[in-house]
């Protein structure tokens, strides 16, 4: 019992609210943005209203932000066209405490994205949406942060989807699982720009720095994600006083529920880097979060063994994990730390390192399946999205069919439109369904993918898709189709594609295509 009472005493700031503490609370005012209210209009638009952020209007067609200034000329408006019907959604990347993240392809530009879905009906989650969109839409092209592509609301699900850059290398947590640890030179080169931007340009405390929120791509770029609990500070002297984020990486002052500022992120960064270097979390987490918090408060800060790491690395970690927040360095100071300087002239190929973590065969198969399914969903889809097929080709692209070769966007699109029209016939209510039975892929050059597909296509007007499982709507297997085959026109197809990355991030185009059709 004595141990329990001691635990309650030390963690009292976390177990009781401000009203219970009364005059004992000495927290400073904190200008954190709060989502005061939300309105869902009859037309399916969500209006998220914030005291300091203005108004966010989100519907099925995209996202519009308006921040009203004291005078009309100070008003700031931003709009992102990113509609729900312009997405082909695939399987999940992962699940968080408050969201689900899925792979998707943005149809107009054939871009692979990460789609983060959050329910709007809980106030806490609405606040997370505002925090995330505020940070990302105001820094949509900053190299240290995941790129923001827009957002939309789907009334039927009650979810807002935030479209983000797809980081195909996963997180540092994924890297640790495969590699067991990350070498010092790699860590040093990854520690750039992101935190400096959050702290010194945007005046943000992230409040949830951890390996799972530091993402990498196959180009070797490291970026910060998950700004749902980040907080804005008016200036470099302001401080926070809220208890949010992952307990595992919280600084001592946050556990005590004291005022905190940028130094809290420095503590989390120190734990994160030490975990990445050692391959395991520095504290014992087997006895639960309360015991972990007592360790952070009472035990000496973890230190890397000097015989296993360079003196510069040990110094870097020790500086980050000072119990006294005022003793921790700033981001600017860390970026000029001897640990960073030590490896500045060291040739570190981050792209090759990240590629060594990812299973190249699995990644290639994943991309090939998404792009092939995306193509057939466009081919089978409504006339309203068919025009987007044209942008799937470049002027140098070639398409071969029935002994003819077509070159360039216009000729290829016209040829495909004619094929599509002939297959569907003159009955406007009929549609095409492609059923992929075999798909093979291989690498094509450094970054391209060659795809060979075969299967059946069915033309008719009544299809019932059965079965369950995660797959894009409209791409069934034969086992999942309840169809009256005699009343349908059925054929077989074989198709080969070579797809290459486009000029824009995560966009693909078809450089070469061959189609063979056998219609019964």
TrEMBL record:
Q: Which reaction does it catalyse?
A: L-seryl-[protein] + ATP = O-phospho-L-seryl-[protein] + ADP + H(+); L-tyrosyl-[protein] + ATP = O-phospho-L-tyrosyl-[protein] + ADP + H(+); L-threonyl-[protein] + ATP = O-phospho-L-threonyl-[protein] + ADP + H(+)
Q: Which GO terms describe its biological process?
A: response to other organism
Q: Name one GO molecular function term.
A: ATP binding
Q: What is its EC number?
A: 2.7.12.2
- Superkingdom is Eukaryota
**SMART domains linked to this entry:** S_TKc (SM00220)
What Pfam families does the record tag this protein with?
A: Pkinase
NTF2 domain residues are: 367-517
Disulfide bond: is it a keyword of this entry? no
Q: What is this protein called?
A: mitogen-activated protein kinase kinase
Q: Please spell out the taxonomic lineage of the organism that makes this protein.
A: Eukaryota, Viridiplantae, Streptophyta, Embryophyta, Tracheophyta
């Amino acid at each position: 019992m004595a141990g329990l009472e001691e635990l309650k005493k030390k963690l009292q700031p976390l177990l009781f609210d401000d009203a219970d503490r009364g005059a004992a609370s000495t927290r400073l005012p904190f200008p954190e943005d709060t989502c005061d209210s939300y309105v869902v209009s009859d037309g399916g638009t969500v209006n998220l209203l914030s005291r300091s952020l203005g108004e966010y209007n989100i519907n099925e067609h995209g996202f519009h932000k308006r921040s009203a200034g004291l005078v009309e000329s100070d008003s700031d408006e931003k709009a992102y066209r990113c509609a729900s019907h312009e997405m082909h959604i695939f399987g999940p990347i992962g699940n968080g405490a408050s969201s689900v993240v899925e792979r998707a392809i943005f149809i107009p530009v054939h871009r692979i994205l990460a789609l983060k879905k959050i329910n709007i009906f809980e106030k806490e989650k609405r606040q997370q949406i505002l925090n995330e969109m505020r940070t990302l839409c105001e820094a949509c092209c900053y190299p240290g942060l995941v790129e923001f592509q827009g957002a939309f609301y789907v009334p039927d699900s009650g979810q807002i989807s935030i479209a983000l850059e797809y980081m195909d290398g996963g997180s540092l947590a994924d890297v640790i699982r495969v590699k067991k640890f990350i070498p010092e030179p790699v860590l040093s080169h990854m520690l750039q720009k992101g935190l400096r931007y959050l702290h010194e340009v945007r005046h943000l405390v992230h409040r949830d720095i951890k390996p799972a929120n530091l993402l990498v791509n196959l180009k070797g770029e490291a970026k910060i994600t998950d700004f749902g609990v980040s907080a804005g500070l008016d200036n470099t002297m302001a401080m926070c006083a809220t208890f949010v984020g992952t307990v595992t990486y919280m600084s001592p002052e946050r556990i005590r529920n004291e005022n905190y500022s940028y130094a809290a992120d420095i503590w989390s960064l120190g734990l994160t880097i030490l975990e990445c270097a050692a391959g395991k979390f520095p504290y014992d987490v087997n006895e639960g979060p309360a015991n972990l918090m007592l360790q952070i408060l009472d035990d000496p800060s973890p230190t890397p063994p000097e015989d296993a790491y360079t003196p510069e690395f040990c110094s870097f970690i020790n500086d980050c994990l000072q119990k006294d927040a005022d003793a921790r360095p700033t981001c600017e100071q860390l970026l000029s730390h001897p640990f960073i300087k030590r490896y500045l002239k060291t040739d570190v190929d981050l792209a090759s390192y990240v590629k060594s973590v990812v299973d190249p065969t699995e990644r290639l198969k994943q991309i090939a399946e998404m792009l092939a399914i995306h193509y057939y969903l466009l081919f089978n889809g409504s006339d309203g999205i068919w025009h987007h097929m044209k942008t799937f080709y470049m002027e140098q692209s070639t398409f071969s069919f029935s002994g003819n070769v077509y070159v360039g966007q216009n000729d290829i699109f016209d040829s495909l439109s004619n094929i599509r029209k002939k297959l569907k016939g003159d009955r406007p209510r009929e549609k095409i369904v492609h059923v992929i039975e075999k798909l093979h892929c291989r690498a094509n050059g450094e970054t391209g993918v060659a795809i060979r597909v075969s299967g059946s296509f069915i033309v008719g007007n009544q299809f019932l898709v059965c079965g369950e499982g995660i797959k894009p709507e409209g791409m069934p297997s034969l086992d999942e189709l309840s169809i009256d085959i005699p009343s349908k026109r059925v054929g077989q197809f074989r198709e080969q594609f070579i797809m290459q990355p486009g000029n824009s991030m995560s966009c693909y185009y078809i450089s070469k295509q061959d189609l063979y059709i056998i219609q019964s």
